[in-house]
Structure formats: structure tokens, C-alpha cells
Amino acid sequence: MAIATVNPATGETVRTFEELGEAELEQKIALADERWRTYRTTGFEERAACMYAAADLFEKEADLAAELMSTEMGKTLAAARNEALKCAHGMRYYAEHAAGFLADEPLADPSRVGATRALGRYQPLGPVLAVMPWNFPMWQVMRFAAPALMAGNVGLLKHASNVPQCALYLESVFLRAGFPEGCFQTLLVSSRRVESILRDPRVVAATLTGSEPAGRSVAAICGDEVKHTVLELGGSDPFVVMPSADLERAAATAVDARVQNNGQSCIAAKRFIVHTDVYDAFTEKFVSRMRDLRVGDPFEASTDVGPVATEQGRADIEELVADAVAAGASVLCGGRRLDGPGWFYPPTVIADITPGMRIYLEEVFGPVASLYRAADIDHALEMANATDFGLGSNAWTNDEAEQERFIADLEAGQVFINGKTVSYPELPFGGIKRSGYGRELAAHGIREFCNLKTVWIGDEGASS
User: Fold this and answer.
1) What contacts 22, CB < 8 A, 6 or more positions away?
2) Is the pTM of this model over 0.85?
3) Residues 221, 223, 224: CA angle, nearest 5 degrees
4) How distant, in Å, are the alpha carbons of 109, 121, 138, 176, 206 from that of 453?
């Protein structure tokens, strides 16, 4: 894929970028290696001052950042502006809490290990490569960058090739905020060059958010090099509705959970598993709300759902829907691409899905919802867990025993009861099964790229 801004609402190529040459790439990696050796010695207060300044820039330039995101990947302008402000919130969170999260962990009774003092100390690893996706082109990067920089690491960003202006803007924010040159650099390179970067001994770890094949590739390379990785590889999140749920709230939230980010979110609810006693009532409310959504120009305030980010992405959606329909599934609304320029696909609801259909197991990255009827809570859990993914999950019930059952038995990294899955700086984020491993955000996210060094200090006067 060429490194270019292609407006998904029109299909127009707005701007193209030259890929870094080998000499330019070498200069950037060498600078990262040189910079981290001095940056790692800075204190939390110095790093926090720069991080707060970067947050200020994001808030001041939220409209500019939003325009870049909407132009490059098609999210609505309102959603894009919220993403920019969320980046600022995440930066402030780590600026405030990094020192506490990475404080020494002393052993209460060091004499038990024959020491006068013993502790665990968190220290940065070095230059970390982040391979990031286009769907949240700034927030997804910030989930890595804010904690990594506050921990004393430096970042190298290989962003998706269709959001180069977002990638360059992020680099400029950190530089203008006062971070030393080389602390955060954007690498305008194609995916084929990721392996050579990962194998460079100066790059010590990697984080990737993206497809399962991309995650497998990065994990294999880093495994061969014995380098630490954090992977978030998507999901096919269930949204379970039980009879005790508030159906109005559940249906309204279900729509938002499915079409957020034009349906292109790893933690978007995708499979709606509804107890048979309320299936018909929920379906009527849900389909009506999905049908009423306005699809259009992401820059117009009245637009609810913008275009799919890439032409191939829309083709993938069409293939999954066509496969299901050919095998007997019912389309309750949507189901056909919209006429005209751009890569628009309408909010769609599909029912009567069976295990032989691709959509039963594969993630649909667009505004398409799958409906399933569950006989009871056991059946609901069986269907919810019948996927190779395990990122987020949602369950709607006001029965406390059922809530505890879903918390215990849903196979996912996150369980949201009576709400939609959302990423917060304050909560750890990540998945299980083929949704990846490791955690972003909260204290866990900043510790992922640290060496927890064991320190043992004995009495120098003691005899050996």
C-alpha cells in the first residue's frame, strides 16, 4: 500500500509521501538509540512537564487533529475531536501517575532473604517500535506513547500507511512540547520493512495493534530475537441481553456499541446474543434505531456513520455479508453498499446465522451486527465464547447472580455489565486467546516496557 492520504468519503488521493530511504531510516534508529541513553536518566518531573505541555497542545489543536483524522480515515468530526481530547486525558493521566506506578517496591522484611534492604525497581528498556492501526490513529498511539515516554523509553512509530499526516502530527506534538529530539519519531516505511527494524539490536521491544496475521508475524520475529511484545489483535465481541435488562437502554447502547468509529473498532460489539424471551422486543428496537442512522460526509454534524476507511475494507464486509445471505441468513436492514463516490456501507443487521457461515467466527470490521437467539444463560455463554477472539464483552442483566456468572465465565480480557466496552486510561486493556496478550493502560500498561530489576543489599559488615 502506498503511503498516502486517500479521503474515504470521496476516494480522492489528497497527498502522497515518499518512503524513508535506508540511510534516513538508519539515522532515525541511531538517534533513538543515542537519545534514550540520556533520556532514561531524566526524572519523572521533567518528563511530566513535557507530557503536560503535549496534552495542552492536543487540547488547543483538537480541531486540527480532528480534521486530519476525519480526512484520512473517515470517522465523524465529532468522534475525531473526542479522540483528540481523549489523548490529552491519557497524557495527563500518565504525567500524574507514572512516578507512583513505577515507584520502588520494597520487601517488607528483607531479613527473610538475608538482606538489609531488598526491592524491585522499574527501569526503561530502550527504543520500542509501535506498529499501529488506522482506526484510532491518535488515541491508539497515545496508549503506547504516553506511558512509554513517561517510563523513560523512546518510541519509534510505524503507523498505518493510510494515516501518514496523523503520524507526522503526533511526532510534531511531542517535539513542540519539549521532548528531546529522538524521543518519539515517525517512520514512514512500508510493512515489508518492519522485520528489519525489529531485528535491529537497538530496537528492544515492540507493540502492535492490528490484524491477527500481522500479530503473528511480529510475535514470530520478536520471539526469534527474544524481544518483548504486546499484541492487541482485534475481537468479535459479544453483547448479551437477558430478560431483566432495560431493553430501551440496551438497544440504544447496542447501536452505539456497534457503529462507533463507523463500526471499525476492535472493541465494538459485533455479535448480539439475546435471550429468547426478549429477542423479538429487542430486535424491533435495535433494527429500528440502526435503520434510522444517517450515513454521510463525516464533516457534517448530522452524520452518524461515515465511510469505511478503505476500499478493501468495504469489499471484505461485502464478502462476509454475501456469504451469510447465500447460506440462508436474513438481512433485517442495510446489506448493500451505497451508490456514489466514497466507501460507504450502511448500518446492517443480519439474523438467522448458523455456524457454517464465515460471519459466525470472523470479525466484521464495519457497521454490521449479527443477531443470535439464546435459550438461556448457558446457551448465551456457549455462543459468546464460541470464537477464537477474547478482547471485550458486554452483558446486560439486572440479576446479580447472572452478573457474577458473566464476570466469571465470559472468555475475554474485559467484561462490561450494563454498558458498552470502552478504553479508559484508568483501566487495563487487552485480550486473551487470539486477541493477543499483554496489557495497555493503567499501571499495567506503563510496566509492560520496563525491566523490573530485583535489588538485594546486604550488610557489608557481615561475614560471608
Assistant:
1) none
2) yes
3) 65
4) 18, 5, 32, 33, 20
Grid coordinates in use for 219?
Answer: 510475535
pLDDT tens readout for residues 123-148: 999 999 999 999 999 999 999 999 99
The C-alpha cell 502492535 sits at: 208
Among 241, 256, 244, 260, which Cα is nearest to 383's?
241
Q: Which residues are catalytic?
A: 232, 266
Letter for the amino acid at 225?
E
Q: Which amino acid is it at 259?
A: V
Q: pLDDT category, 461, cuts 50, 70, 90?
A: low
Q: What is the mean pLDDT of the chain?
A: 97
The residue behind cell 513505577 is: 102
Is the pLDDT assigned to residue 427 strictly greater than 80? yes
Please name each of the domains of the chain with its CATH number.
4-233+435-455 (3.40.605.10), 237-417 (3.40.309.10)
Residue type, 68: L
Stretch 293-305: mean pLDDT: 98
Q: Please tell me the number of Cα atoms within 13 Å of 88 on its side-chain side.
A: 17
Cell of 295: 450515513
